[in-house]
Every structure is written in structure tokens, then in C-alpha cells.
Amino acid sequence: MKTQRRWTITTRITLFTGAVAALLSAMLAWTVMAAIHRSATEDRIDEITADGGRVAHQLEHDQVSVPLVEHSDRYVQIVDPKGTVTTSTPQLHGKPAIAGFTPDHRKIATRIVCGGVFPSGDCNIVVAQSAYRAGQDWVVYSSSPTVPPYVKPWLAGTVIGAAVVMALAITALGHRIVTKCLRPVTAIREELDKITDTSADRLVPLPPSRDEIHDLADSVNGTLSRLGAAMRQQRHFTSDASHELRTPIAAIRAEVEDALHAPEDTSVPTLGNAVLRSVNRLEAIVGDLLTIERLEAGQPIDREPIDLSELVTAVCERRPEPHKDFEYSLEPGVQVIGDRIRLSRLLANLIDNAERHADATITFRVRQEPSLKRDAHRFPRGVAVLEVIDDGPGIDPERREMVFQRFARLDTARDRYAGGTGLGLPIARRIADAHGGILRVENSPQGARFVLRLPLCSTLGNALKGESSDCA
Question: Quick one: 82 exposed, middle or buried, by C-beta within 10 A (0-12, 13-18, 19+)?
Fold first, then answer.
């Protein structure tokens, strides 16, 4: 199969520029030639009229002299009142009148006459002028061939040549401009090819001009930066996931190998209990990985009105007997729109994290706040705030964002089985993002203070104002 040859942008723009330049140059040449032709025609009419006027003046004073005109291409006839040619230039001897029109009440009349006394196909400019002699009106006809469209061959050649040169110059200039403009694009493409062959850690060159191509290169660099960060994060995640999965797998393998080497010292219940602990951890890690994958894939969430204080109470009541004391400061009627199951998972993850680090007490606070001016687009009706505070050692300010990274552990020396999978807080943040909210660690006098902010949907405020609820 033959593939159609691809024309480059430079070729297409150059051809377009050349076509437009040729058209404009042709129009300009035609306009110039038309103007020159009109001017030359007017000059010739003036000359013919002057020659005829001189003969008419001589006729009126009985002073007609021969030859009537000195130009070989100029013809003159004197016609008496009866229409008889009395005198003419040598070329018209014995021929009838040049034309049949007369000046009438005007002194001068001009027409274009083709054929007749002139050779077939030739056209002449004929000027008829009145002359008063012996009490009668005579007519003097003077004529000359019409000016050709090209006026003069050398003039037409000069104008056409100038038009061709101008068209070629414009085409060459257009080619040079587009080549220069697209040179940064070529550099960007070549750099992208190198990046494809090597890694996404490189950036494309920025052209010095502040134009659309500069903006394109800037956008490409932004995309490459985000892509490089995503690839680094993916590599880091893959490494961490492999490490996290290797640990329980290694534990299972060790237990099984011990049982095979010393079957008399191992029973099925003992082996099962030992292996089940690692299997449970594997299941938790895989389940959390699947949850993150669904959240990052943008899986749609259910949307229903949820009372945030009631949700906190319900999630806390469903938990096993806590080892820490729970304290509550819950404002009623704080409603949000969201997915009850996912918001319950978010809260459960925050509670799991707080129980691992709290010394004795975990505090839950729910309230509503007016949105700040800078957040009005995110929280148009106000903010629903949920705080989970523990009285543990807290988190250093410079490491607060680190806890939302996958498999992040600030206390790396602790036993892995005493903690979670390292995915609970990243899952919680992604659930908050999916609901248009914000989850972050904020300042606290003691311990860690996780603050969730969600768009408020308060039916209580609408009821007090006598308005219908917009939370359905």
C-alpha cells in the first residue's frame, strides 16, 4: 500500500504564502497597468482633441493648411454640413466619413470606432468637433488607434517582472519566517525523542521569544515534570510495595520451611495460626492497593446527605472495645453530600492511626464554619470540619505531608505487625479529594491533629431561613 506523502507545515505555509503573493502581485500588476492604460488613453484623447481643435480653428478662419497633422498614426477629416468629406489626411483619401455621430449641441464628442474606414479588427478613438463656417456647422473628425492594454511592451514587461520579483520575495520571506518560527518546535521534538529514548527527567529547551511556542514548551516541561514525578513515585511505590509484600511472604515461607524440617515439633493449628497472621497482612495490603487504584481511577461515588456527627458516632460505636478513651465535641446538623461507605473508611483510617499513636485519649470534633474568601469556589455554602486529635508524640511540621505518602512510616524502627499497611492515610486523603474536601495535619498543643474539611450542606440553616434544602 502506498502511503500519501506528508507535506510539512513549512511546505504548506510556503505554498500558501506563494499562492497569496502571486495573486496579490497579479492584482497589483493589473491595477497598475489599468491605471497606466487609463492615463495613456486620456493623454491620447487630449492629443487627438488638440489636433482636431487646431484644424477646426483653422477651418473657422479659412486657414486650413496641409498636412492636417504631422503624426503618421493620426487621422483627420473635415466634413461639410452635407456629410461630404472635403479634406482628410492621406490615409483616408477617397474614404467616407470616419463616423456618423456629431457633437450636436456640444462642441466635442468622443467615441470608440472599430472597422469602417479602418482595417478590420482595428479600433480607433474618434473625436468629433464642431466648426462654424459661412453660417453653417462643419464637423472635424480626428482619430488615432486605441492604446493597447499593455500600453508599451517594455512597460508591461517591467510591471510583470516587478510583480514576479515581489511574489518571489514575499514567498522567500514567508519561508524564512516560518522556518525560523518552527525551529524551536524542531528542537522540542528532538529533545522529546531523546527523552523517550532515555528518561522523563529531562526538559525541552525554552525558546527565547515569549510567544505561543514558548508557552507550548513551558506546558510540555510542566507535563514532563509531573510525568517524571509520577514515574519516580511509581518506582518508589513499586519498590515499597514489593518490600511490604515480601515481608509477610518471607514469614510464611519461614514458618512452612520450619514445619517441613521439624514436623514433629509443629502442629497444623500452630502452623495455621502463624501463617494466618501473614496472610491477613497480605490481604490488608492487597485490599488497600486495590482501594487506592479505584480511587485514582476516578471511580464514581454515591452522593447522599450525611450528618457528619452521626457518622462519627456510628463509626466509633462499631469499633471493637477501644484501648483509648474517646472524647466528643460534636455539633448537630452538620451535613455533607457524599458516599457513606467511603467517608466511614476515611474516618476509620484516621481512628486506626490515632489509636496507634495516642497515649490515652482521642478527641473527635465536628463543627461548621464559614468559608474563607479564597476557598469560596470549593466551599460555596460553608465548611464542615471534622477533627481527630490524639495525645501522642505528634508529627514534626516538616514531615506532616510525608504521612500521606504510600507506605510512609515515621517510626521505621517499630514492628511492622504493630502498625498498619502504610496506606491508610493516603487512602483517607484520596477519599477527601474525591469529595471535594481537604485532609491535612494541622497544629495542635499536643499530639497529632488531623483536620478534614468538606463542602457544607446544612439543612438546618435553610430551615431557619424558611428555604428548601439543597442537600437532596
Answer: exposed
Size of the chain in residues = 472
Quick one: which of 362, 346, 365, 361 has its CA closest to 424? 346
Angle at 426 between CA 425 and CA 428, to 5 degrees: 60
Query: Residue 414: is its pLDDT beyond 80?
Result: no
pLDDT tens readout for residues 86-99:
888 888 888 898 88
Q: What is the pTM of this model?
A: 0.52
Residue 112 is part of which domain span? 11-153
Which string of DSSP letters, residue by residue, matches 374-417? GGTTT-TT-EEEEEEEE-SS---GGGTGGGGSTT--S-TTS-GG
- Block residue for cell numbers 457633437: 103
Q: Which of 299, 330, 350 is the last residue of a domain?
A: 299
* Domain final position from 279, 299, 319: 299
59, part of any domain: yes
> Is residue 345 a contact partner of residue 420, using CB atoms and an 8 Å limit?
no
Report d(CA 68, CA 132) in Å as an integer: 18
Rounded to whole angstroms, how far apart are CA atoms 112 and 110? 7
Q: What is the DSSP code string of 290-337?
A: HHHHHHHTT-----EEEEHHHHHHHHHHHS---SSEEEEEE-TT-EEE
Three-state SS at 274 = helix
Distance CA(68)–CA(144), nearest Å, equals 14
